[in-house]
Amino acid sequence: MKAIYFLLFLLLLKCNFVSAQNSLLRLRVLVGTRIVDDKSLYGFGFKYSRKMFPAVLTGVELYHKKYPISLSVQRDYQTKIYAFNAIDSTMVSLPSLLQNHRRFDHLIGYWRIKPKISIGLGHYWDTVENLAHHIRSGVYRYRGFEACFIYHIDWLDFELRRQVNYFPVFNILDHSNTSFALLYRIGKRDEAEKAATKPKRIEVNAIFGGRVFIPKGIKTINGERLDKIALAPLLGLEFLWTKQRLSFNIEKDFWIGINAGSFTRNLKGYITNTSLGFKYHQPLGERRHIRYGLNATWIDDYQIIRDIRATTQTGTKLRYHDFGVGANISYEFLRNWDIEAKHTFTLIEDYSPFTLRRFSIGLVARFSP
Length: 369
Known about the structure:
- The chain is mainly beta and 369 residues long.
- The chain has helices at residues 2-22, 39-42, 131-136, 191-196, 302-311; strands at residues 25-37, 52-64, 69-81, 98-114, 117-130, 140-153, 156-167, 178-186, 202-213, 230-241, 246-258, 267-283, 289-301, 321-334, 337-346, 359-367.
């Protein structure tokens, strides 16, 4: 794989020189995420493991201005952490904060067959490190081919990938070989890409910001201290139908309470909220809006995991997910900047739907390249 990267690097240098003379070949950066099935991250079957997991993806792409073809080199990372150490008797004993780490390297050629549709073929190299693999034989490595179907909307690309593993075993049927990617290609667009964005019926916005909440109900041990106000960074995407003033939003916020120097556990807690839902954008004067939203929210809360482990004799639930219905309202006090209040009414048994740490106030910004 290193030899292939070196040859590609030389090729890119040459093409970059040619590009400076005739402007037919261009280079651009790729950033995004790939949603994968994390089954093989464990190396063995956990019945209660989280099924879908976001991987951070970066890469570069060489494309031709005149012809609808391109060559891309990509890498994505997936890392899982544990919040606890062996001394935390309510949890499974594990020696490391890093539970699993996985790296994919991709070499993919793309062909744009229509202004909004592309297909791709490529090869991947997969490297996995986790507890099971270290016990058995250390780092695991896999190789295979992959096919891609891409739909272009505004500045964002939706990509469905299907992989076929041929080393060390042949595997074509496993559902974990299917993934979904969201990509942003940074750089000057060619004519076919510009044509794909007109007319613009759907506006795509990147969302970023943060939410603050009160971490009430999170238990501390051995003299630990929690801040009275916790901050959760926020990332997401918004697909806005401008005429209908309606949008579909995908949002994720995450809070991690680091527990430095502790012999008991690495983290005091973590909470992630993944939301899918709709918002109505009511216009006000001076291009401002009030936005109302309803969403479904999946919650990963370390405190819930601890409570279940403490009351479950079998200890079969390594992870646990809360689920609820979220409601939010926001006011656009500056252009593309909102103050938002949100509460998730959780549906988990034995937990109140009015749990205080499910309420947050946030600052949300919208950005469209």
